[in-house]
């Protein structure tokens, strides 16, 4: 997995995650979208939104294997 990112890199990683997730300006790549979503979820400044996104990706198996337990845990974390 890619390492944690510094706060100054967060916006570019966010934009890359969205681009790969939606296939905007790049070929859609769920694995890369998951990796960037994972990195962003680790950064506290954007953790809520990306914990939710990461939970959704685990629940649906987007870019990773389906893992309902992780998905539910991340969903609950994003609400707190």
Structural commentary:
The chain is an all-alpha fold. The protein has one domain (8-79): Serine Threonine Protein Phosphatase 5, Tetratricopeptide repeat. Helix content is 65%, strand content 0%. The protein contains four helices and no strands. The chain is flat, with a radius of gyration of 12 Å.
> What is the percentage of strand-forming residues?
under 5%
Task: Classify the fold: give the CATH topology.
Answer: Serine Threonine Protein Phosphatase 5, Tetratricopeptide repeat
Q: What shape does the CA trace take?
A: flat
What is the CATH homology-level superfamily?
Tetratricopeptide repeat domain
Structural class: mainly alpha
C-alpha-based Rg, rounded: 12 Å
> What's the number of helices?
4
Question: Number of domains in the coordinates?
Answer: 1
Biggest β-sheet description: none
Mean pLDDT figure: 82
> In CATH, what is the class?
Mainly Alpha
End-to-end distance: 25 Å
Instruction: Tell me what the CATH architecture is.
Output: Alpha Horseshoe
Work out the helicity level: 55-70%
Low-confidence stretches: none
Number of strands: 0
Key terms:
80 residues; mainly alpha; Serine Threonine Protein Phosphatase 5, Tetratricopeptide repeat; 4 helices; 0% strand
